[in-house]
Design goal:
With 340 residues, this protein is an alpha/beta fold. The chain contains 12 helices and 12 strands. The protein has helices spanning 20-24, 27-36, 53-56, 73-78, 99-102, 111-131, 133-139, 170-179, 208-214, 234-239, 257-265, 307-322; strands at residues 11-15, 38-39, 61-64, 84-87, 106-108, 161-166, 184-189, 204-205, 217-220, 245-248, 270-273, 293-295. Helix 2 (27-36) runs parallel beside helix 12 and helix 6 (111-131) packs across helix 8 (170-179).
Length: 340
């Protein structure tokens, strides 16, 4: 039934933020999508309560994304023909209930597509941090800096610098792949992989304490789980070398914010945070003024034309679906426990 009843295009609808559809699909991509799906609603669904029951009863496909409404038993009862949910973003934890998998609905994710910009942001920040550029940018606002002062500083530069990656997630793996083109020694901590994992060909698997002790730059790519909340706390930060940099593009609560702020104010560590706890920080949060901190407003993921890559991921999944081919990036129920 993947191709829809009576050989026609599957009936579909968008369920995501209004205005996101043209960001995901330009004219050419939308044309490809419309050749394969019959999109029956003019506007994306923000609440299933606002959709006529007779329309919901016929829907076979949903394209979801940021701002998607929750889908649980009640919504599935209203959509008995639903066969697939193509998610134009990463995690589906926030809006899909376990009933989706219990009823055999296919779920796919664009997490691999979203990994590209996050990994690129991470690589850029690692290179700038290793080069000692970030504090110089701040200094240059106030006075002329003599480059001769840093020409021979052994702590500046990326040759044979040790970088620690926490989490062999989709993004973590991509970061490791990008780092392999440079002269870095890459350490990896992830308790869920074994020594036979292909990622260990481009990194050295170590324990968390060893990674923190040896790395001058540590980048976090672990999911937010009960076991990872606060995993980088006071004791872990204390193991990092003086002047080391902590980079977090994953989830804010993985890092103990108070402990990190104490290290920053002591001038011992530096940090680059694209995520915080809470996210965003309150306007008057003391962490905002901590020295040695580069703070960006959750921009590592897909923005601008990068969002088109998420749409392309959905398109390719739809194209597989309508011809009965297996999904490239299915989300299985057992994936949820390790998903961000």
């Amino acid at each position: 039934m993947a191709a829809g009843r009576r050989g026609r295009r599957p009936l579909a609808a968008f369920a995501l933020h209004a205005g996101l559809v043209p960001a995901l699909f330009d004219a050419a991509a939308r044309s490809r999508l419309d050749e394969r799906l019959d999109v029956v609603l003019d506007a994306p669904i923000s609440s299933f309560d606002d959709v006529a029951p007779e329309v919901l009863a016929e829907l076979e496909v949903l394209v979801t994304g940021w701002g998607a409404p929750t889908i649980g038993a009640r919504e599935l009862d209203a959509m008995p023909r639903l066969r697939a949910i193509f998610h134009a973003a990463g995690s589906v934890k926030g809006h899909l209930g376990a009933e989706v998998w219990e009823r055999g609905v296919l779920v796919t994710t664009a997490a691999a597509a979203n990994a590209h910009p996050v990994a690129e942001y991470t690589l850029a920040m690692i290179l700038l941090a290793g080069k000692g550029v970030l504090p110089l940018v701040v200094q240059e606002r106030d006075f002329d800096h003599d480059p001769g002062l840093v020409d021979h500083d052994p702590d500046i530069g990326n040759y044979r610098r040790t970088v620690g990656i926490i989490g062999a997630s989709t993004i973590g793996r991509r970061v490791i792949g990008l780092l392999s083109a440079f002269d870095f020694d890459v350490l990896l901590y992830d308790p869920l992989i074994d020594d036979g994992d292909p990622v260990t060909l481009q990194s050295t698997r170590v324990g968390l304490d060893e990674l923190l002790t040896r790395s001058s730059i540590v980048s976090i790519h672990a999911p937010l789980l009960p076991s990872t909340v606060g995993m980088i706390g006071r004791a872990e930060l204390a193991r990092m070398p003086d002047s080391a940099v902590l980079l977090n593009t994953a989830r804010g609560p993985i890092v103990d914010s108070a402990a990190l702020e104490a290290e920053l104010r002591a001038g011992r560590l530096r940090a680059i945070l694209d995520v915080t706890d809470p996210d965003p920080l309150e306007a008057g949060a003391s962490l905002r003024s901590a020295p040695g901190l580069v703070l960006t407003p959750h921009v590592a993921g897909a923005l601008g034309n990068e969002v088109l890559r998420l749409g392309e991921s959905v398109l390719q999944e739809v194209e597989r679906f309508v011809v009965g081919a297996p999904a490239a990036y299915p989300v299985l129920r057992e994936h949820l426990s390790a998903m961000a």
